[in-house]
């Protein structure tokens, strides 16, 4: 993956392990030559991730709506900061720029962004892997609910590997890099069926 879109909290969270994981992920991405696309803030886990990538000499592209520039305190040291008008434009721009999506721990915004990316993969709008860095079991309840949705036939085979989840960033990135859509069909073909 040339560029990875990372969704992350605008807060640090209660467990120091979340910030440690964000920094470690940033350093790992730099070592692999993978650029980061993210929400453009310099606070919370978003800021920890961006700073780690920048300190390692990596590329960071931020995408932030004008209305959130003060609230999320836009990061002024990024390789590229794109200011957009709406949240919809933010998500569409990040999706266009990225080869895959990964969620660090976060709140409603992080969950919403992740679920939209997974939905777009499921529907065949794009064919990009979606991953969860499950730090300290943070996403265990989400993974349980997704399994329940499949058991109750609300999702089908196309959702079996959505998302890819691991507590170990290197193995998560390896699995995401080798991911292929169900049946190996390109997204457009799946959408037409």
Name of the level-1 CATH class: Alpha Beta
Shape: globular
Number of strands: 7
Structural class: alpha/beta
* Rg over CA atoms: 16 Å
Strand proportion = 15-25%
Gap from first CA to last CA = 27 Å
Element string (H = helix, E = strand): EHEHEEHEHEHEHH
Q: Whole-number average pLDDT? A: 91
| Strand arrangement in the largest pleated sheet | 4-3-2-1-5-6-7
- Please give the count of helices: 7
CATH topology (level 3) name: Rossmann fold
Summarize the structure.
The protein is of the alpha/beta class. It has 7 helices and 7 strands.
What does this structure look like?
- The protein is of the alpha/beta class and 193 residues long.
- The chain has one domain: Rossmann fold.
- Helices cover 42% and strands 16% of the residues.
- The chain is built from seven helices and seven strands; from the N terminus they run βαβαββαβαβαβαα.
- The protein has a seven-stranded parallel beta sheet, sandwiched between helices.
- α1 runs parallel beside α2.
- The chain is globular and about 45 Å long.
- The two termini are 27 Å apart.
- The model is unreliable at 184-193 (pLDDT under 50).
Can you give keywords for this protein?
193 residues, alpha/beta, Rossmann fold, 7-stranded parallel beta sheet, 7 helices, 42% helix, disordered C terminus
List the helices and strands and how they pair.
Elements: E1 3-7, H1 16-31, E2 35-38, H2 44-55, E3 60-65, E4 80-84, H3 87-97, E5 101-103, H4 108-123, E6 130-133, H5 140-151, E7 164-166, H6 169-177, H7 187-192
Parallel strand pairs: 1-2, 1-5, 2-3, 3-4, 5-6, 6-7
Helix pairs in contact: 1-2
């Amino acid at each position: 993956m040339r560029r990875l879109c990372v969704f992350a909290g605008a807060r640090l969270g209660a467990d120091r392990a979340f910030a440690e994981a964000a920094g470690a992920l940033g350093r790992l991405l730099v070592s692999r030559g993978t650029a980061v696309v993210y929400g453009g803030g310099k606070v919370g886990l978003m800021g920890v991730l961006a700073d780690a990538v920048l300190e390692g000499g990596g590329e960071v592209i931020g995408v932030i709506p004008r209305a959130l520039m003060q609230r999320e305190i836009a990061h002024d040291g990024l390789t590229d900061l794109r200011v957009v008008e709406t949240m919809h434009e933010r998500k569409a721009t990040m999706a266009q720029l990225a080869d895959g999506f990964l969620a660090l721990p976060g709140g409603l915004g992080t969950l919403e962004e992740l679920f939209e990316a997974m939905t777009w993969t499921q529907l065949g709008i794009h064919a990009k892997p979606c991953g969860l860095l499950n730090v300290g079991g943070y996403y265990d309840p989400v993974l349980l609910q997704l399994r329940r949705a499949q058991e109750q036939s609300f999702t089908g085979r196309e959702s079996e590997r959505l998302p890819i989840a691991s507590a170990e960033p290197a193995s998560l990135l390896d699995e995401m890099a080798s991911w292929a859509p169900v049946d190996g069909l390109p997204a457009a073909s799946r959408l037409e069926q």
